[in-house]
Design a protein that fits this description.
four-stranded antiparallel beta sheet, elongated
Length: about 325
């Protein structure tokens, strides 16, 4: 799938795609595109109008073979699923194949990037900012809407909900793919390879600490009816200003503990971003720092250092030393 096809104006609807796919699958020989177009015109103007986009899409994901201006069954066409009365599995397969191709051709980030995602605390669902999807990819966006991958909420017109069936796919696959695509910034004095090595080590240490705190919170809240909503937000929204949402107590009915996890070795020191600091000031007593000693995480009796309202108890507390590590420099006029 090239950038050109990503920007196709019309991929049609899921129903249109299944109709075209079934027609090719049921043919005993290659179908000339001209004949397919005439057939679609007889069925629906909308179907005929979207045919070029459908052919390009299904050829790109190898559902179709295209040779000498004729279409035949491709190696990845799920012919068995086209025979089912319920097209749920076919829909799943199409969505996975589309996103796999976006990633394979390194254009996933041209459709949706890390900053597009958010997490709705009230419904415990991943969301996407509607305006973050480029206008020139509206054909793909509309197709995903027709497949209920993006769900429109009339009460919140600025966002799409991700269908519940794909929440885990977004979290564990798409967002991870986008992290792989993210550009590294080269720090002074380091080669690019060395920088990546250091960053990888930092990320792995941070991830282990977050997973430790996630498990710690679920044990702390054992018996809470909504413990499944304790969630690692950092995997979804990179600039949330905290890593985990949890519940302050067993009687909390909605997430009211926002946890930023910092790992350390020997001395409890950490980097605190401007955004994290701003969120800690906003959340105040609902915001917690969990300082995790990496060397003790495997000890079943270990507990992290837990600091409530760190904006006051750390940032505005003279007992904690603060050193500026980076400066933003710009012309005064």
């Amino acid at each position: 799938m090239s950038t050109k096809i990503l920007q196709a104006a019309n991929f049609g609807s899921f129903n249109n795609i299944t109709f075209v796919a079934k027609t090719i699958a049921e043919s005993s020989k290659a179908v000339p595109v001209r004949d397919m177009r005439n057939y679609c015109i007889g069925k629906s103007v909308d179907l005929a109008y979207s045919l070029n986009g459908i052919i390009d899409l299904l050829t790109s994901i190898r559902w179709f073979n295209s040779k000498d201006n004729a279409l035949s069954v491709g190696g990845r066409l799920p012919r068995d699923l086209l025979q089912e009365e319920d097209f749920s599995l076919l829909r799943n397969t199409l969505i996975l194949d589309i996103f796999s191709l976006l990633k394979e051709r390194d254009i996933l980030q041209d459709f949706i990037d890390l900053n597009s995602f958010d997490f709705d605390i009230q419904t415990a669902r991943i969301t996407v900012f509607r305006n973050s999807i480029p206008l020139n990819t509206s054909g793909l966006k509309n197709l995903l809407i027709s497949m209920d991958f993006f769900v429109i909420d009339p009460n919140q017109p600025h966002i799409y909900y991700i269908d519940d069936n794909y929440q885990m796919f977004i979290e564990t696959e798409i967002i991870e793919w986008l992290r792989e695509c993210a550009n590294f910034t080269i720090e002074m004095g380091l080669t690019f390879e060395k920088f990546k090595e250091i960053q990888k080590a930092k990320e792995e240490a941070g991830l282990r600490a977050e997973e430790y705190v996630l498990s710690f919170e679920k044990k702390r809240l054992e018996g809470h009816s909504l413990v499944s909503r304790v969630k690692q937000i950092s995997k979804i929204k990179v600039d949330a200003g905290y890593d985990i949402i949890s519940f302050d107590s067993l009687i909390s009915r909605e997430p009211d503990r926002f946890i930023e996890v910092k790992s350390f070795s020997k001395t409890p020191e950490f980097y605190w971003s401007k955004n994290e600091l701003a969120v800690s000031e906003l959340r105040r007593k609902k915001y917690f720092l969990y300082l995790v000693d990496r060397s003790k995480m495997d000890n079943p009796n270990y507990q992290p250092i837990i600091i409530q309202d760190p904006f006051i108890s750390v940032f505005q507390n003279s007992d904690w030393k603060k050193d500026a590590q980076n400066w933003l420099v710009s012309p005064s006029s």
